[in-house]
């Protein structure tokens, strides 16, 4: 027994010694790894160049999988930040962003702030926010800057707080949000002990925004522009003021003086390129095109040192840098050959795509899309001139693609993601992407409500959460792109015509630019390319006609003015050049999104009787869509028709919808659908049940919002804001929005109105019937009753929408006053041209069979008579 105990004790002792040895070795390894990371990083910092960077990358790949302890994580964060800084200095911005993102992710995930005084704001978050600004990722930039402003506020770090205000102001200036800049800087006025350099920067930003707002002579500006400046900032402000006032000679002088104050060796390649670009822009404005071209060449050579002089760069040599966009745009303007100009514009679009490929929020995507619109219009100008000279379907098709590439592209991308998920419903990447996108919109909704004071956030890190989701989405979307590569889309006239033939339709596409409205008409026999000048007269024609629908009296009190304007606009928009096709598909743009085309008049009339007026709706069936590709995209229709109706009624409010009760009863009778009324029509009940139905009908109040407040939809308990609707995932065959202003919202260039209707489209509805103005409760109930009667017979929302309006106009029980287009033309249908179901098909078969028997009988009878006569 004693021997056994001794043996056991020896084994136990040996085991303990071994464990201690392993622990010591691991500790030494851990310590050595931490020191190794710092050592390798410091070696690289001492001699930064491409060769030493490559060495660091190889060393990093050898040890990064072994990193485990917090000390090692901190060392690696230090390495990542220095890598990112080097990449940023060398214009490798996407790679720099990825390294900074990795650094901040590790720093937060391992809670390194609890064990170290490493300044994550200074060495990671500040440059990351600035990089997001430089690469047009505006949402991430704002979330990053606001995140470290919040950190600085909590830790009473005035320097970081003011830096955040400065960087946020720079971001807002980049986006032209100058009032927001002034509001931000006003917040700093009560802060004492701001360092002199930061004070000067705040003053410069403030003055710069005042200049942009044409308020530079305000008492808020302390710069005396009559005297020669003595600092870089003063010369820069004088340059901006002169440029804003159109004094380009003075602007060039002050620009050169500002540059002279800068130390040449402190300029990065990007800053040098920017400087020469600004000079080129000034020379262009001074019509000195030779010097403009020379400065653009210097700017381009600075960013691409290996480029041959005056050569057009290959796409493969370009990278995500927004300076390229301005260079190529101006080079395009300088070309006398339109094809060469289009080559440069094509490079601008390519770089723009490089910049936005990792953008995940729809807000940033829309902002970038808006910036591309101006370039699209220049391309259309060139192609229209070429078309006028030579004609040709190829030029028409190219122009059409420029028109559509920057139109509703965010909405189109959402549909593409949903389609891909439908095709691969079990793919974990696609499922996770959908979840993150919905979470992103939910958080954005909370953030907006918090900023507007609608609710108090229980979480002070919304910006951080949104940033984290964006980083996750970017990583995920890179994997999805590799797994499911998407080919570059091109819209062909032959494909359009094929679908139009099926739909017995013609297509009219509009592009609403800054200077011109372009129109494309496509039929089986012909294509028409029109250019309409957007001058004050034209804009007034459109806006005046739209304002006729602000209230019912505007039309009824002056019917003659209405008929005159309705026919005049019909002519100005060349709607008469559409042939007498049975159906017309209209893809509007800009202000035309708010125009009821069906209420235009096809010819002049002296009639005061609305029933007898030649409205477009009487001549043709009109359907709308946001983009040609959305029209061409095939849709799956559910076999069953299950309707969910939402009717809050609001009986106890000052805006009751009394007639919606009758509307609900008629819809229930016609469809047998599920109707949620009064207090049952809550937001939560809608969210929980909407995805179970193929038809959604909402009879309620809605608002189009304004520049501050987003569009919203009312339920019996609380409203649903637009971003909350974005966060839903539904797939109904049809959404009917029997509510005011559901098609109205903040108008975004290219994307259209950010309305409740678009919210439903974003959530997954491809067919939507919605209103363009504040509709009348009683007439809406009548129209909806007529709509569902027709829909039950035809199973075609497209057909039922038109038929309900025709029936409304011809109903003898409706007064003449109520037949004004104010009452019936508010509803527009966006979606597919679904052919009506022939409910009398069996009867036709029977009649056809009886007719055939009768014909045979007549033939036989005649033969018998002839035989009798011959015998």
TrEMBL record:
It holds the Pfam family CHAT. Keywords: Membrane, Transmembrane, Transmembrane helix. Gene3D superfamilies: Tetratricopeptide repeat domain (1.25.40.10). InterPro entries: CHAT_dom, TPR-like_helical_dom_sf. Residues 578-831 form the CHAT domain. The chain crosses the membrane at residues 842-860. This is CHAT domain-containing protein.
């Amino acid at each position: 027994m004693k021997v056994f105990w001794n043996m056991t004790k020896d084994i136990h002792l040996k085991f303990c010694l071994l464990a201690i040895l392993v622990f010591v070795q691991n500790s030494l390894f851990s310590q050595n790894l931490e020191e190794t990371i710092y050592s390798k990083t410091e070696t690289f910092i001492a001699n930064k160049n491409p060769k030493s960077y490559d060495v660091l990358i190889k060393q990093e790949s050898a040890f990064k999988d072994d990193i485990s302890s917090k000390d090692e994580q901190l060392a690696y964060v230090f390495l990542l930040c220095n890598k990112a800084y080097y990449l940023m200095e060398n214009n490798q911005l996407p790679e720099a962003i990825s390294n900074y993102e990795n650094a901040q992710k590790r720093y937060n995930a391992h809670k390194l702030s609890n064990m170290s005084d490493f300044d994550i704001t200074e060495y990671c978050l500040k440059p990351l926010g600035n990089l997001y600004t430089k690469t047009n990722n505006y949402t991430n930039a704002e979330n990053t800057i606001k995140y470290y402003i919040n950190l600085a506020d909590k830790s009473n770090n005035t320097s970081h707080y003011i830096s955040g205000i400065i960087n946020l102001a720079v971001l807002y200036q980049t986006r032209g949000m100058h009032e927001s800049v002034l509001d931000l800087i006003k917040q700093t006025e009560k802060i004492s002990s701001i360092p002199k350099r930061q004070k000067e920067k705040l003053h410069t930003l403030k003055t710069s925004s005042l200049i942009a707002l044409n308020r530079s002579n305000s008492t808020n500006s302390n710069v005396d522009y009559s005297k020669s400046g003595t600092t870089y900032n003063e010369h820069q402000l004088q340059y901006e003021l002169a440029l804003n006032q159109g004094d380009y000679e003075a602007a060039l002088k002050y620009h050169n003086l500002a540059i002279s104050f800068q130390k040449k060796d402190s300029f990065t390649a990007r800053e040098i390129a920017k400087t020469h670009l600004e000079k080129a822009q000034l020379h262009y404005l001074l019509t000195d095109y030779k010097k403009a071209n020379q400065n653009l060449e210097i700017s381009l050579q600075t960013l691409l040192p290996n480029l041959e002089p005056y050569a057009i760069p290959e796409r493969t040599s370009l990278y995500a840098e927004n300076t390229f966009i301005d260079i190529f745009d101006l080079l395009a303007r300088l070309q006398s050959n339109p094809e060469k100009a289009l080559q440069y514009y094509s490079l601008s679009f390519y770089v723009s795509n490089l910049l936005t490929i990792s953008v995940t929020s729809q807000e940033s995507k829309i902002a970038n899309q808006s910036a591309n619109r101006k370039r699209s219009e220049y391309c259309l100008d060139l192609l229209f001139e070429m078309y006028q000279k030579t004609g040709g379907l190829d030029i028409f098709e190219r122009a059409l693609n420029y028109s559509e590439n920057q139109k509703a592209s965010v909405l189109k991308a959402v549909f593409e993601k949903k389609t891909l998920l439908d095709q691969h419903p079990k793919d974990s990447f696609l499922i996770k992407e959908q979840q993150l996108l919905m979470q992103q919109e939910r958080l954005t909704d909370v953030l907006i409500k918090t900023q507007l004071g609608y609710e108090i956030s229980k979480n002070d890190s919304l910006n951080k959460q949104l940033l984290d989701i964006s980083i996750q989405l970017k990583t995920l979307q890179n994997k999805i792109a590799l797994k499911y590569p998407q080919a570059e889309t091109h819209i062909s006239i032959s494909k359009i015509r094929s679908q139009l033939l099926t739909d017995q339709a013609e297509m009219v596409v509009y592009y609403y630019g800054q200077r011109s409205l372009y129109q494309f008409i496509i039929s089986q026999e012909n294509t028409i390319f029109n250019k309409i000048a957007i001058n004050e007269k034209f804009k007034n024609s459109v806006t005046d006609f739209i304002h006729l629908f602000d209230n019912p009296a505007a039309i009824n009190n002056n019917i003659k003015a209405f008929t005159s304007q309705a026919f005049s606009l019909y002519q100005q928009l060349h709607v008469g050049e559409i042939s007498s096709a049975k159906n017309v598909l209209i893809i509007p743009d800009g202000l035309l999104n708010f125009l009821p085309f069906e209420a235009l008049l096809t010819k002049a009339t002296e009639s005061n009787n609305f029933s007898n007026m030649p409205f477009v709706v009487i001549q043709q069936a009109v359907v709308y869509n946001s983009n040609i590709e959305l029209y061409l995209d095939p849709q799956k229709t559910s076999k069953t028709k299950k309707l969910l109706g939402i009717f809050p009624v609001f009986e106890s409010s000052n805006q009751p919808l009394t007639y919606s009760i009758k509307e609900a009863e008629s819809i229930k009778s016609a469809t047998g659908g599920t109707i949620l009324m009064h207090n049952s029509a809550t937001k939560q009940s809608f969210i929980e049940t909407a995805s179970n139905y193929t038809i959604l009908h909402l009879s309620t109040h809605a608002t189009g919002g304004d520049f501050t407040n987003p569009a919203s939809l009312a339920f019996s308990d609380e409203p649903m804001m637009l971003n909350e609707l974005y966060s839903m995932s539904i797939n109904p065959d049809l959404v009917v929005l029997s509510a005011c202003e559901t098609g109205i919202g903040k108008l975004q260039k290219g994307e259209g109105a950010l309305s409740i209707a678009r919210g439903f489209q974003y959530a997954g509805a491809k067919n939507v019937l919605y209103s363009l103005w504040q509709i009348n409760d009683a007439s809406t109930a009548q129209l909806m009753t007529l709509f569902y009667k027709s829909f039950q017979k035809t199973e075609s929302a497209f057909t039922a929408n038109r038929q309900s309006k025709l029936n409304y106009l011809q109903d003898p029980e409706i007064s003449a006053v109520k037949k004004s287009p104010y009452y019936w033309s508010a509803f527009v249908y966006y979606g597919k041209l679904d052919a009506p179901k022939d409910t009398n098909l069996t009867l036709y078969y029977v009649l056809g069979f009886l007719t055939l028997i009768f014909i045979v009988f007549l033939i036989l009878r005649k033969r018998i008579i002839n035989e009798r006569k011959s015998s």
